[in-house]
Amino acid sequence: MKKINDDDIKVYTQIKQGTKWLEKYANTVPIFACILGFTETALIKGISTAGATPESRCFTAVADAEFLVNGVQSDPTFPLPPLNVGVSPVFITRAVVERFNLPTYVFNAGLMRSPSVANIDLGGNFAKCISTGEALSLQTVKHLYQQGLAWGEQLASQAQSSYIILSECVVAGTTTALAVLTALGIQAQDKVNSSHPICNHQQKWSVVDRGLQKASLTSGISRLDADPLSIIAAVGDPMQIVVAGMAISASEKVGVMLAGGTQMLAVFALIKALQKKYALSIPLENIIVGTTRWVAEDQTGDTITLANLIGNISLCSTQLNFSRSQYLNLQKYEQGFVKEGVGAGGAAIAAHLLGVKNSELLTLIELIVSRFHLVTNP
Predict the structure, then answer these.
(1) What's the CA dihedral at 356, 361, 332, 205 to 10 degrees?
(2) Strand pairing class (120-121; 287-292)
(3) What's the pLDDT at 221?
(4) DSSP per residue over 180-247, as a string?
(5) Is 372 within a domain?
(6) CATH of residue 222
């Protein structure tokens, strides 16, 4: 087995388990899946920086999906929405997908608009704002869960002896993650991350608390008794239940990397809750969470403590560093902007496992950025 270089990948929790997983899947080409979803929570002013305005955030997922699949284009159907600071993390992911020609699947779990690229429509719906306490219908959640289980099995059969990267694009997804974690009885308040340089914990909690109260999920007893599917229906988003289903079925045959930060920790907590509620046999050791250093070491959140509170999950990150980048918008990541999304951390870890060092990966990413600038600023 290949030894993992700490300069490229760092394991923060369940170190022995995580290192074993990484060594097992070194030098293998994964399947990359991106599950898109939308929650009207994203329309709240200031809740996210993944789009400079609430209106532009309606297009973030479809624009990122188009860039993920097609790369730089002169006339995209959905241009990447402008950010106040930084660039979309899809630049990181696209660099890896392009370098290794990763098999890539886009899933529509519930969007306001259909993606412009080939995608698998799971027949879901976008979620209402979690402050309503009625984000999705229970029927939709159950349907998406079954879709996730079915597709996880199908992807696993294609992965064979490799692994699957399950990524997401859901604007305001860290807020829905906070809601789901809290409803599952995990003390996640002030521990989640965000695309802001300093996490907007108070704003997130205000929205979450309203939703939990309306859904009668505020008392300890009601939380512990609640069906995890009902929790997603009350205060979740469509991506969460799909990825949980995919990971549950796929992990029986292959390795699964949940590519993301707070959002994927919430998905793992959901998986554990489903395991307990329905007495499922899930090889949790086959599942790992892979993110970026900007998330794992975010001083305005507490990702590592959150992972430990959830329990039995190995959290690892790419040690990718943009401080020496020639592009100011990439340097902004080092100031806490953007941090993660579209499986950026997981894609970078996959590149490291295939022998790409941090310096080489930065060069690959900058090549994508330079092509983008040539097209948008001729």
Answers:
(1) -50
(2) unpaired
(3) 46
(4) HHHHTT---TTT---SSSS--HHHHHHHHHHHHHHTT--SHHHHHHS-HHHHHHHH--HHHHHHHHHH
(5) no
(6) 3.40.50.10210
355's CB contacts (< 8 A; 6+ apart) are 27
Return the number of other C-beta atoms located less than 10 Å from residue 46's C-beta.
9
State the pTM of this model: 0.97
Task: Report residue 295 as tokens.
Answer: 């998330």
Query: What's the number of domains the chain is made of?
Result: 1
User: What is the structure's pLDDT at 132?
Assistant: 98
**DSSP for residue 1:** -
**258: closest CA among 174, 177, 166, 154?**
166
Does residue 377 belong to any structural domain of this protein? no
Q: CA dist 21 to 11, 168, 255, 266, 338, Å?
A: 11, 21, 8, 20, 27
| Half-sphere exposure at residue 248, Cβ-oriented, CA atoms within 13 angstroms | 26
Q: Chunked in runs of 10, what are the mean pLDDT values of the chain (378 residues)?
A: 80 97 97 98 93 89 98 96 90 98 98 97 98 98 98 97 97 97 94 91 96 85 74 98 98 98 98 96 98 96 96 97 96 96 98 97 98 84
Q: Is 85 domain-assigned?
A: yes
26 is a domain residue: yes
Residue pLDDT, tens place only, 126-161: 999 999 999 999 999 999 999 999 999 999 999 999
Altogether, the residues listed in the chain come to a count of 378
What residue numbers bound the domain in which 353 lies? 9-367
Burial zone of 153 (CB within 10 Å; 0-12 exposed, 13-18 middle, 19+ buried)? middle
Kindly state the helix (H) or strand (E) to which residue 330 belongs, with its residue range: helix 328-331
